[in-house]
Design brief:
The complex is a heterodimer of chains A (167) and B (654). Chain A is an alpha/beta fold and 167 residues long. Chain A has 2 domains: 125 residues, Rossmann fold (3-Layer(aba) Sandwich), CATH 3.40.50; 31 residues. Chain A is 48% helix and 14% strand. In chain A, strands 2-1-3-4 form a 4-stranded parallel sheet, with helices on both faces. The radius of gyration of chain A is 21 Å and the shape is elongated. The termini of chain A are far apart. By secondary structure, chain B is of the alpha/beta class. Chain B folds into 5 domains: 130 residues, Rossmann fold (3-Layer(aba) Sandwich), CATH 3.40.50; 175 residues, FAD/NAD(P)-binding domain, CATH 3.50.50; 61 residues, no CATH class; 165 residues, FAD/NAD(P)-binding domain; 56 residues, Alpha-Beta Plaits (2-Layer Sandwich). Chain B contains 17 helices and 34 strands. The chains are: A alpha/beta (167), B alpha/beta (654). At the A-B interface, α1, β2, α2 and α3 of A face α4, α5, α16 and α17 of B.
């Protein structure tokens, strides 16, 4: 039997235009090689990233989401990355509650000069998410639907047996 | 919807890794795609013409090009779209070169990634809206920060073109590092002779306002319309009255100079009231508040003020804040020389006869502390001198980069020291780097002059004599890599050729002006080859050694380039801005005010009567923070609307 194909995680990466996107451009110009699993979506500032984008990416099948912004104090828009940080700390707690493991979402500060850090972060994230295995939130969501349905069914059945308490 | 899709081979840059035909065929099947083509160079004229023609012939209403980074060719294809008669913002670029072909080796995986990227853009572009660039007027005045040779040259170039320039310098005089030098390599022409006429020209130019002893403290606004606050520190001298006669210095209660003279690198002393050097520009004295008795204690005879017949000294003067409005800014803030104390094994600061190169520049200078006589700290004249290259350059422990100028200035110092002292000169180098017009010839000349060149990184400088000849000398221990053995060379004087590094406060300065720094700390240019004096902040340019180590000819050339870029900007009279600002859809705004405190530019206001937020598009810089925070989703950022970004997410994942 041929060797089982290695799981290749799908990573969606939101990169800010001024620091991290530029760093990824620099990595390209410098021909720094890294794992091909990340798909970059450019935003002007990491502060543009609505937590909904990250949830949506997971819901649509991403195994990991990476958010890259300028280092604290270096934001092109003065303080957008602080707002990102605040939002993402809350989001991380929410993700945990949803059963999405640590490491599937990652916030990194990568400056325009740190082409090498793009490689290090993406490679490291791909390895860690690969170890976690597929997230398959769409598949899990179907399971949750079934569970809910079963619960609802159970409630209906018990309600059928009982007399209504009021009209 | 009729989408045109194009994939560029970029020669083999892209097509060498990504199967362009496969991506083309894949895109052709995506919904809405009317035309899908591949071409060797999309950015070439025939490539663009193909797009223009297709838009007309096939009535395309959206355009997607998969090629390089949008920072390179987004504008090119927007223009092609416009030429074909399409709104240029109906275009989306896919970066399959920098973000894909150049960083991946697995061709199948790279091609799959390219397909995902393309699908994202094609899904997104459907939601694009027609937009227009905003045109804003540009203030024609320019601010130059830093009064070294770079700032001087840039200011003069702009002023000669008829622009009003303000030159701000932190020090009490302009001139920068170049004013410290005696001679310049490789021509050995006198630094002062070529610099001081330019300094005077700055002072006397009707279009230049020179503010020395001043610092930029605040920068607001955007390209073409910067508002800058400058702190003008007081010298405790009425600048319009002082004529630089120096009578006050003579009259100071300190009969002898007592305090470190920074201009002479601490090789001499100065009084609390001082002028850095005779050709200081502007020709004004300055009172140092750290050492002046009157300013420190308020109890001094004030003999200096008495001596001034023009009554120019006033201890009550205060710092002033001045506001400026400019269209462009040139940063020419220079470098710091490496502190040789960080290489403890070379003995700087421990052995008095170990000198930094900048100290030696002053020592050999006819207007220096010894009038050009090379006399050591112990009063002796050196018979043997060792010059050590790469102190704080090409070193894993300190600075990894080559400082570019040290080999050449070491050769210059070798020549000058030999000329001034007749001593034996030993020059220790790792590699002799002399790239530049007539530079190698200068090295040849030094070989002819009998300087001893020893190839090897010096291990240590100490005073432990092992033989009678070494008694009372400094011993340089080095592995001579050409001879193949370790040598001990006794000398009377050691010169450490310091490397160049970013100024200590370069990080603060770049934050002030909202530009970037490389990992080594120098200011980051927008593109290393094609935009070497531009930065990521439009309208802010960089010149000289603040961008990286360079010699005087390169610095002047770069200053001219920065002046030309600034001129091109301010002369156009107006500038077009990306329309990526945000706006509030009033009907959907619930009046929660969440967005109002988020905006760092105070662009969002709240109309209490209507209970709605509104965004001032002139103040908005287009970060999108408010759009992400709005709970009702009523704030839209042009080019980055929710549906566009959700489309992209769906595209990369489906």
């Amino acid at each position: 039997m041929s060797e089982k194909r290695r799981f290749e995680p799908k990573i969606v990466a939101f990169f800010c235009n001024w620091c991290t996107y530029t760093a990824a451009d620099l990595a390209g110009v410098s021909r720094i090689k890294y794992a091909p699993n990340a798909r970059v979506i450019r935003v002007m500032c990491s502060g543009r990233v609505d937590p909904q984008f990250i949830l949506d990416a997971f819901a649509k099948g991403a195994d990991g989401v990476l958010l890259g912004g300028c280092h604290p104090g270096d934001c092109h828009y003065a303080e957008g990355n602080y707002k990102t940080l605040r939002r993402m700390r809350l989001l991380e707690r929410m993700l945990k509650g949803m059963g999405i493991e640590d490491g599937r979402f990652r916030l990194e500060w990568i400056s325009g000069a740190e082409g090498d850090k793009v490689k290090v972060v993406i490679n490291d994230m791909v390895e860690k998410v690969r170890a976690l295995g597929p997230l398959d939130l769409p598949g899990r969501a179907k399971g949750w639907d079934k569970e809910l349905e079963a619960l609802a069914h159970g409630v209906r059945k018990s309600e059928d047996k009982k007399e209504p308490t009021h009209a | 919807m009729r989408i045109g899709f194009y994939i560029c081979h970029c020669g083999t840059n892209i097509a060498g890794t990504i199967d362009a035909a496969a991506v083309r065929d894949f895109a052709a099947e995506l919904p809405g795609v009317a035309v899908s083509r591949d071409y060797k160079y999309m950015c070439s004229d025939p490539g663009q013409e193909m797009i223009v023609q297709d838009i007309r012939d096939n009535k395309l209403d959206r355009l997607v090009v998969a090629a390089c980074s949008p920072s390179l060719h987004e504008e090119t294809f927007r223009k092609a779209a416009a030429k074909g008669g399409m709104n240029s913002f109906f275009f989306q670029m896919v970066n399959i070169r920098e973000h894909n072909a150049w960083v991946h080796e697995d061709k199948a995986a790279a091609t799959q990634k390219a397909k995902d990227q393309v699908r994202a853009a094609i899904t997104r572009v459907r939601f694009h809206k027609a937009l227009e660039k905003k045109s804003v007027p540009v203030n024609a005045n320019v601010l130059v920060v830093g009064g070294g040779i770079a700032g001087i040259h840039a200011a003069l170039t702009l002023a000669n073109a008829g622009k009003t320039v303000t030159l701000v310098e932190r020090d009490s005089t302009i001139g920068g590092h170049m004013a410290l030098f005696d001679k310049t390599f490789p021509t050995l022409d006198c630094a002062a002779c070529i610099l001081t006429p330019k300094m005077s020209a700055v002072k006397n130019h009707p279009n230049i306002t020179l503010w020395t002893y001043s610092e930029v403290s605040k920068v607001e606004g955007y390209v073409g319309n910067y508002k800058v606050t400058v702190k003008r520190k007081t010298r405790y001298i009425k600048e319009d009255l002082c004529v630089g006669c120096l009578d006050c210095i003579e009259a100071c209660v300190f009969k002898e100079p007592k305090f470190r003279d920074d201009f002479n690198q601490g090789l001499s002393k100065r009084k609390p009231v001082y002028m850095s050097f005779p050709q200081a520009t502007p020709k004004l004295v300055t009172i140092d508040p750290e050492t002046c008795i009157q300013l420190k204690t308020g109890k001094c005879r004030k003999s200096c003020a008495e001596a001034c017949d023009r009554k120019a000294i006033d201890f009550e003067l205060k710092d002033e804040m001045k506001e400026l409005e400019v269209g462009a800014i040139i940063l020419a803030t220079g470098f710091s020389a490496f502190d040789p104390k960080r290489h403890a094994y070379y003995g700087y600061g421990r052995y008095p006869n170990v000198y930094s190169a900048l100290e030696v520049e002053r020592l050999v200078n006819a207007s220096g502390p010894t009038n050009g006589e090379v006399v050591l700290r112990d009063g002796k004249h050196p018979k043997a001198i060792g010059i050590i290259h790469c102190v704080g350059s090409r070193d894993e422990h300190t600075n990894k980069w080559c400082s570019r100028v040290c080999c050449m200035y070491s050769l210059k110092l070798a020549h000058l020291l030999k000329e001034h002292t007749g001593a034996e000169i030993y020059d220790f180098y790792i590699d002799m780097r002399t790239p530049g017009k007539t530079y190698e010839e200068f090295y040849d000349r030094l070989l002819q002059e009998g300087v001893h060149f020893i190839r090897g990184r010096v291990a240590e400088v100490n005073d432990w004599a092992m033989t009678p000849e070494e008694e009372g000398k400094l011993v340089i221990r080095v592995e001579d890599t050409l001879a193949g053995f370790v040598r001990r060379i006794p000398v009377d004087m050691v010169v450490l050729s310091q490397g160049l590094e970013a100024r200590k406060d370069a990080g603060d300065v770049r934050r002030l002006f909202n530009i970037g720094c490389g990992t080594e700390g120098f200011f980051q240019e927008r593109h290393p080859k094609l935009a070497p004096v531009s930065t990521f902040a439009d309208g802010i340019f960089i010149a000289g050694a603040c961008q990286g180590p360079k010699d005087i000819p390169d610095t002047v050339a770069q200053a001219g380039a920065a002046a030309a870029e600034a001129l091109a900007l301010v002369d156009a009279g107006h500038v077009e801005l990306e329309p990526n600002t945000s706006h509030v859809v009033e009907e959907e705004c619930c009046g929660c005010k969440s967005c109002v405190p988020l905006c760092p530019y105070s662009a969002i206001s709240f109309d209490e009567a209507k209970k709605k937020a509104s965004i001032n598009e002139v103040l908005c810089k287009g970060c999108g923070v408010c759009a992400a925070a709005c709970p009702s989703g009523s704030i839209r950022q042009n080019l980055f609307e929710d549906e566009e970004l959700f489309g992209e997410i769906e595209g990369v994942l489906s």
